[in-house]
């Protein structure tokens, strides 16, 4: 998927396409995770749809839950979903940063090897 250090620098158009594809992958992960959270809070937490969506969104955004849960099943779901949401947040940030960081490192390697002019 990524070019190695012996390959040429990717054109701007192809790089932007790569960034777009990574963005779409991140968006897909967020959408699925948001659906899981909303359904879980609604089913096990006995929250309204809008409160379920709010709690799932806040956890996925790294902010934390809103409101209290009254059921044990809701509390268990919220505990596991909070752990899951933290991992998803880190994964999505990594997916979004990967093409940019790879481009910077690839350019540095090419400059070190003398294959790209400084300018």
Architecture overview:
The chain contains 3 helices and no strands. By secondary structure, it is an all-alpha fold. Helix 1 packs across helix 2 (49-60) and helix 1 runs antiparallel to helix 3. The radius of gyration is 20 Å and the shape is elongated. The two termini are 27 Å apart. The mean pLDDT is 90.
What's the end-to-end separation, in Å? 27 Å
Low-confidence stretches: none
Shape: elongated
Going by helix content, strand content and strand pairing, the class is: mainly alpha
How many structural domains in the coordinates? 1
Q: What is the H-and-E element order?
A: HHH
Largest sheet: none
- Helical residues, percent: over 70%
Number of strands: 0
Q: Give the integer mean of the pLDDT values.
A: 90
Q: Measured on Cα atoms, how large is the radius of gyration?
A: 20 Å
Question: Helix count?
Answer: 3
User: What percentage of the residues does DSSP assign to strands (E)?
Assistant: under 5%
Sequence-ordered SSE layout with sheet pairings:
Blueprint: H1 12-43, H2 49-60, H3 72-113
Helix pairs in contact: 1-2, 1-3
What would the keywords be for this entry?
3 helices, single chain, mainly alpha, 119 residues
């Amino acid at each position: 998927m990524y070019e190695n250090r012996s390959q040429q620098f990717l054109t701007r158009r192809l790089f932007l396409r790569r960034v777009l594809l990574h963005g779409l992958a991140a968006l897909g992960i967020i959408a699925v995770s948001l659906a899981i959270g909303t359904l879980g809070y609604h089913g096990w937490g006995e929250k309204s749809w809008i409160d379920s969506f709010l709690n799932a969104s806040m956890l996925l955004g790294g902010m934390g839950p809103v409101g209290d849960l009254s059921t044990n099943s809701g509390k268990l779901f919220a505990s596991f979903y909070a752990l899951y949401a933290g991992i998803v947040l880190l994964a999505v940030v990594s997916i979004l940063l990967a093409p940019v960081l790879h481009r910077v490192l690839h350019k540095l390697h090419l400059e070190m090897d003398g294959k790209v002019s400084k300018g």
